[in-house]
Amino acid sequence: MSVLHDEQNKIIAPLTRNLQENIDAVDVLFKDWADIVKRKLTVGGSNTVDIYFVYVDNMVDKALLEEDTLWNLIHWMDDMPAENQFDYIKDKAVISADISDVYTLHEAVKFIMGGDTIIFVDGYDKALKVSNRHMENRGVQKAENEVAVRGSKESFSEALFINRVLLRRRIKDTNLKIVQTTVGTRTQTEVAIVYIEGVAKPEVVEEIQRRIKNFVVDGIFDSGMLEQLTERNVYSPFPEFQATERPDKAASGLVEGRVVLIVDNSPMVLLLPTTMNSFFQASDDTYSRWEVATMIRILRFLGAFITVALPGLYIAVVNYQPELLSSALALSFAAAREGVPFSVVFEVILMEFAFEMLLEAGIRLPGPMGSTLGIVGGLVIGDAAVSANLVSPMVVIIIAMTAISAFTVPNEAFAAAFRVIRYLIIILSAFLGLYGFVLGFMILLIHLAGLKSFGIPYLLPFAASGMGGKSDGRDAIIRFPLNKLTDRPIYAKDDARIRLVRNHDEKKKQKQ
């Protein structure tokens, strides 16, 4: 199998004491690498030794490497001893705290491709790894997909080391653990599992580690690929992980007892476990007053219902149960459809597809052009379709309301799942009327009730509320005042559920 080619041919042989043999092995592995830098030097005074250093151009800090390490190796090694030369070079020549010994060729190659410098020393069956990485990245940018009115404006970067710092800066706790592993036989992508020891459930951490080790793949280029390879609900449109680009949201999840997955080269991190309720929560909900946050959450849940139900309900009522409409409304609908040669179902599907194409085109075009296309294209197509009697004005209003409602959900992956389910409701309503409409919602609820994310029911706290206790419902549709949210959600360990304790003396003063 091609994906196992690298695993089967992995070079795990130890390094040899013969420097030339190590050089020959490195030359074979890095053949036709235009950006590899290799050089052999002889250092020392009366006692000399040959060394050979290797690194990838533009992946290391050349100033640090040349001005410190190489300068010391060339100019300050006159008192090189006849024995223990490796340790002497390690202690005297390398000015870096992050150094370690390397014993196999595979380890050396891995570090070189990761941006480190490897120094081979003649006569020793080990090499020296010097960490002086300096890779170009776009740094910390402003969050674009999860915009918050209040709170941090920072977003994660593609560089894993920057993302680790963004979490460390927010959670100054020695119990914040970061376990790194490598995924992808060819890409060697670094994946960090982040959790707070004593708060996160150990079985959840062990389960995600087991899932990551449960497959072998050529490469991982984004967190979305890792998500698909480790999730269990592969045939469900609803995500088992919650993706976010906001460090404050990830830090909040860690404090609640969740686990964060950081994938190198991806600006989105994954939170687990997750529930449907968590997808309706935005970062600035916690920063706003509880009345405002509650009102906005009600609008989000209402928007999710509208985006799933409105087109199907319109088709079911107009085609099968028009008697549910008042006389004035029924006449208004009939007048709006006068001259339209197509059925209601075809009208709705036509406008749905037109909107989906506009949405996709707007995403792929550059920013200003995409916004212009979305606004102008929607107005022009909608007005032209109505003027040509291809669709009725009511269908344009229905689809516009549906589209707007979909964007009230603050998670794109979760909103996309509702967009998929909407077509199921439309088809069932087209064939079975209101019975199909209700049947579609029953299928949706049954499906959601059967989903779990790392052992956590997807519909908590609305279903299986006994598992989480009464406190989980305080941060659902209605967000209680912050001083009432004394317990962590069900994600946390049972003995770590309490997160807020009021000072009793202060409480007495407030009563007085």
UniProtKB/TrEMBL annotation:
One protein family per Pfam: GerA
Protein name per the record: Spore germination protein
The entry's keywords: Membrane, Transmembrane, Transmembrane helix
Homology family: Belongs to the GerABKA family.
GO cellular component terms given for this protein: membrane
One annotated GO biological process: spore germination
Membrane listed as a keyword: yes
TM spans (from-to): 298-320, 340-359, 371-388, 394-411, 423-449
